[in-house]
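hey can u check if this looks right to u? its 261 residues, i copy pasted from the old doc so theres a chance i mangled smth
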Amino acid sequence: MRSFRNLSRHLLATGLAGLMLACSSTPTYNPTVFPFEIDQARVDQGDIKTVVITHVNLGLSSRTYLEKEAPRIDAMVSAYLKKNGLKVLPQRDFEQRWNTAVRSYGNPVDPTSGKVNMKTFSQIMTTIRDEMRGTGLDAFIFTDLVELQTSFSGGLQHVARWDGVTRKPTIQGPGDGVSADFDWAMLLDVASLQVSIYDMELKRVFLGRGGIDATQAIDSRSSKGRYIRRRDILENETSINEGIELAFYPFIKTENWPGNP
């Protein structure tokens, strides 16, 4: 009887440990996940196997300090796509054709406002699409680095949540403290990766977005409390990879999705 009790305790302990492990591996629910859009019937056809990551934004141009980080992040996006079984054509194949088409139709991006002339943009994309049919291309992927605003939560744990991620504040300057009357509700600049996928008919089959990191830090030199531009813009590779994973869900499934299945 004693051995049976010991066995029961062992099984109970093992079961509880397994339950705790399962719970710990489950991502914490985050209500800020982006409401992705997906043409599931189109994606389920399974013929999107070869893609190219464009070097241009689909929407407004990214801020200058984000734009210079775009090539590095696109390289990480490419690695993520390849890891998940997609073939990624060299970005230069798109860029060379884009530059040629711009000389014919003009630049669709207004350098003053950053707005996009969609008629010109469509003409350029149609030309590029026709020229790239012979490469085996199935879809274009636009990766826009967008900047949003949010604020840190109140209470003892100050965290910012947006587009599925949770980030703690960063302090920049000679000190390491924050004044007691710091306004945590003050808006903070943050960055996300927005992904748009268009098939060879130039129809959008997917739109998603994942948070990456804050682009501002708390200025420790300010007695009143303020935010300043971070020196290390989007340098944390773990945060970037998390944003990429969230931005492509559910086009690429992941167990780390913090929203409702």
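DSSP finds seven helices and eleven strands in the chain.
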